[in-house]
Amino acid sequence: MKKKYRIQIYLLFVWLIFDSCSTQNSADLILITPSYTVNERQPWAEAVAIKNNKIVFVGTKNEAMFWKGSSTRLMNNPDGMLLPGFIDTHVHLLTGGIEMSQCYLNDLGSPEEIFETIKNYISKNPDVKWIRGGGWLLPIFPDGNPLKEWLDEISSDKPIFLYSADVHSAWVNSKALELAGINSQTKDPSGGVIERYPNTKEPSGVLRESAMDLVASLLPKITKNEIQKGLNVSIKEASRFGITTVLDAGTDTYPPNYSSENNYDGLSAYKGISNDNNSSIRVAASQYAHPTLWRKHLPIIKKRKYDNDFGSMNIIKFFIDGVIEGGTAAMIEPYLGTNNYGIMNWSSDTLNAAFYEYEKAGFQIHAHAIGDFGIRTTLDAFEYARSNNKSTDQRHMICHTQLVHPDDIIRFRDLGVLASFQALWAYPDKYIKDLTIPRLGQSRSEWIYPINSIKKAGGRITGGSDWTVSSLNPLVAMEVAITRKEPGQKDGESLIPEEAVTLETILNAYTLEAAYGLFLDDKIGSIEVGKLADIVVLDRNLFKIPKHEIHSVKVNQTIFNGKIVYEKD
pTM for this one? Predict the structure, then answer.
């Protein structure tokens, strides 16, 4: 009996040791789902295992079971698809969240809907001193010019300030113009346009580019509570769409207000959450460079740098020009039938100097450039900085990249400049048909959003939403990049179909290429052993459905740093 008892004790001891080792080596989560890894050495896998915050296994489902322990959660979705977490390289995440609590006009399709929404907002918020918000679409109104009288009918005693969806125009009422002292005698500010009635020269109610600041400077300062609330809202929205990392293209006011280094602003909020182990998104934050104050601001901006596991601020945002639909994007040749070449916010010499100094100070540059002259001048400035700093791997970006002269396509590769495209705009909608092609003419319009041309020339492309200008959902933009058609259209009209890209290319643009653009490709962007577990689980396999259905695919789970931060009901 004693011998038998000793054997039982020994076997129990061995089992406990084995179980302990098994528990220690077991994964927290095993996902058995077709996985497109964006790793060219192992493009596909059947299963992925996660322990703590890292990917510990990528391979077959049978082999994955070696990682299963008593506490391992097993998720099996054979009809779905696993991808690296999406990375948005041009989004206004913080301001988007703030806008959602203001007079939110996004996605409204008619003037009547807009008027009704404004009325409802005023009714529900009787105590606000300024009616502020935005998101109205330019094509809804003739020539993108709504009138101040229409807002006066809604409110004549409270000032109204409403950004357009592209944030390059603002619609205001008479009260707002009065408070700002804008009348027929007011001159257009440098880099801006006050839209006017042709006969009287009285302002008609729309301010473009820097002219918006004449009123925007009067707006009440966004409070700390509003910033934090807006950020929480927008992060949840990002998680809902499988986004785990973003480049926020401007986290302070523009023009920037550096009157006090202790002012709480968007960058303060981002730095705060990046120090929080419970953060559910990685943020590459940026600060604006001002066309006249950039050198004065440089030492202040340098002091605001930070870098940790959940975020950084090492990016400077430059506004080079405006937008085509507003006639403010900078052009090599004038807009069709006019003497208007658009607006350059920076002279070539100043831009060269600013790029050189900010690059020398260790900053990565993110430049808004839309017109062919704006893009060419930006590439020239990158070339100047590269030559004089003897730099080789700065990974600067041009965002939007709408109208690229054919001679400049190859320069993206040669200069190592990434093109951050907002592919959702690359189909023939009202913006293109009613406001872009008529201003450019048919021949120049063939250069719009040359995603495939830059890719074929050896350039690197990334994807961004520009939310709240357009949808935050990456899958909608991916579909348009592949079809160059309106989302959901199987046989509809396409915009320059030869500029369409493959599904593999656009997935890469939203994952590994985007990670490369943020100097994070060694940590995220692909599903590989040792990388951080930022993963999105889709309810359908993108490779097994028609192209025109990609926009309708839903996110089942979003996994950030090894934790499920969103799960579909």
Answer: 0.88
